[in-house]
Amino acid sequence: xxxxxxxxxxxxxxxxxxxxxxxxxxxxxxxxxxxxxxxxxxxxxxxxxxxxxxxxxxxxxxxxxxxxxxxxxxxxxxxxxxxxxxxxxxxxxxxxxxxxxxxxxxxxxxxxxxxxxxxxxxxxxxxxxxxxxxxxxxxxxxxxxxxxxxxxxxxxxxxxxxxxxxxxxxxxxxxxxxxxxxxxxxxxxxxxxxxxxxxxxxxxxxxxxxxxxxxxxxxxxxxxxxxxxxxxxxxxxxxxxxxxxxxxxxxxxxxxxxxxxxxxxxxxxxxxxxxxxxxxxxxxxxxxxxxxxxxxxxxxxxxxxxxxxxxxxxxxxxxxxxxxxxxxxxxxxxxxxxxxxxxxxxxxxxxxxxxxxxxxxxxxxxxxxxxxxxxxxxxxxxxxxxxxxxxxxxxxxxxxxxxxxxxxxxxxxxxxxxxxxxxxxxxxxxxxxxxxxxxxxxxxxxxxxxxxxxxxxxxxxxxxxxxxxxxxxxxxxxxxxxxxxxxxxxxxxxxxxxxxxxxxxxxxxxxxxxxxxxxxxxxxxxxxxxxxxxxxxxxxxxxxxxxxxxxxxxxxxxxxxxxxxxxxxxxxxxxxxxxxxx
Amino acid sequence: xxxxxxxxxxxxxxxxxxxxxxxxxxxxxxxxxxxxxxxxxxxxxxxxxxxxxxxxxxxxxxxxxxxxxxxxxxxxxxxxxxxxxxxxxxxxxxxxxxxxxxxxxxxxxxxxxxxxxxxxxxxxxxxxxxxxxx
Lengths: 582, 134
Prior knowledge:
The complex is a heterodimer. In chain A, about 40% of the residues lie in helices and about 15% in strands. By secondary structure, chain A is of the alpha+beta class. Chain A folds into 3 domains: about 5-200, Aldehyde Ferredoxin Oxidoreductase,  A, domain 1, CATH 3.60.9; about 230-425, Aldehyde Ferredoxin Oxidoreductase Protein, subunit A, domain 2; about 430-580, Aldehyde Ferredoxin Oxidoreductase Protein, subunit A, domain 3, CATH 1.10.599.10. The longest helix of chain A is centred in the C-terminal third of the chain and has 21 residues, at about 470-490. The radius of gyration of chain A is 22 Å and the shape is globular. Chain B has a single domain, classed as Alpha-Beta Plaits, CATH 3.30.70. Chain B starts with a strand and ends with a strand. In chain B, strands 1-9 form a two-stranded antiparallel sheet. By secondary structure, chain B is an alpha+beta fold. Chain B has 3 helices and 9 strands. At the A-B interface, helix 3, helix 4, strand 13, helix 7 and strand 14 of A face helix 1, strand 2 and strand 3 of B. Strand 13 (about 205-210) of chain A pairs antiparallel with strand 2 of chain B, so a sheet runs across the interface.
């Protein structure tokens, strides 16, 4: 049975309704596909991202609750960071909880006058007062309070914002299950603008399956692949932090605001080093046997009292190591972990925070701004001042931090230094200086995320295979992004993309109650991608006006220096293709 | 001797809940609605997890408070449930010290572990096993 219920919540008048939208799930699968349709229905061109009219859409898919790795919830909204399509995916228990509560999607509209949090169960939606929670700045603490206050432990998700969301930082995230995030595009600020402090969703139910024998057989096949093949090994062992050493060796680890492509202290903040010296526990999203979430145990003495310690569990991944480590020249694991912890607590996107601070450091270094702006003397590797600066992004004590809280693209418009403000489509870059296809992904991807079409992995393949022309590059990215639109509509974790090939997806969908004509899924993915592109255009996106920071042409990549003309040729061909049906 | 489910090492639990899905899947259904096992964090994932499942008590409190004798002690520990006799009063769920009696909202009756061991096959991290009650 495919999902069909869409929960519509109105925060302005504290009401909700449930509509059967089977049509949507039949045609657009779920996740990204259903979310973009709902967003297009709800969001207008003139709507400001922080206006009550900006909708928040959450969607899961037909495999959620049925198969391993179908653990992602897709959130869509208008992004306060880009002013355009906001799409963000999170795991934890969010997806399973939403489906088990009986819904395929939820749409949150309006804004509350006073702070609220929502408690969504199979019995309906409860609007709960969050006046006392408003101002609780640490996302950890919000979780701790709601964990005690709400029912159904183990069967619920607790999505919440920290101080960054309340203060409307454009790249504030929504944190779920302490360590997973709807990151990047500022969903936290949209929550904040609606006075929505948290969202608790809980439920336990069953989904009927027609062919039970086949269900168990396919399930077992996925389970064995997950455990016995090498497909999930990287995520299982060191986690994504396994990337740090090889990327550094390739000269592809952005360092000190990408003034260098490798970091002298990379080994000391690598996945290997962290695992050996700090790994305290691994945890998993619901229905995922891999458990890629790596938690470091950081033991610290209190300086004011002897024999008095605290131990903090801090989640790390490649992107955090890059953005808050190499990008800021922070080369000691303890320092990096403390910085990650400060970012996590505030509920900020780690990549955007790191890139923004890296730009600010270079600005100060070049004397384009002074300590009057930065308040503290930002310097590569000085984690203490970076932690202070993280707090300032949230508290915004002056004009400079107010600008920085709107993202590095905006801040560089005001203060200059655009040529080394590392944002693409107004989104701060991810940690792979692998070559032109990586940057092409950031420019062309519907959400300007490295995960949209994974150019970084094509860069590596291209290195081995020799040169390719822009046409081929555009083709590769478009094909990959279309397929990823299928995966994110399902919505399975992209880490399991090696398991979920087209044939398996077709089988799983059939078991889940959606028959698709064999061999047509890629087209469906392209259709969904086009919907996103059309939405973006309707909201004012113009690919021709995208600016590329000069810095990326000045630094070495494993593929040599990137030629500007080559990159723009890929980008141009990509958009021509998407506008003329591939 | 009949076996019961054993928690071999709860510290190895990553909270993936594969066991919960297995328990409902055994009945040919997806989801967790029929599951008689629950994995929850110990006050946040950073502290690890509790795996809550019937411990197959030698003198089960749930059976003692069952007014219709729907729940009866089983040889080797634990209970078996006769659904036809069960009136859904919920006394058993309240009596269980471990909170290991789950509720099937569709039929308003308890879900109780039958010690089949199906979930053990889907625990990827060696948390669950089967054992005879000492």
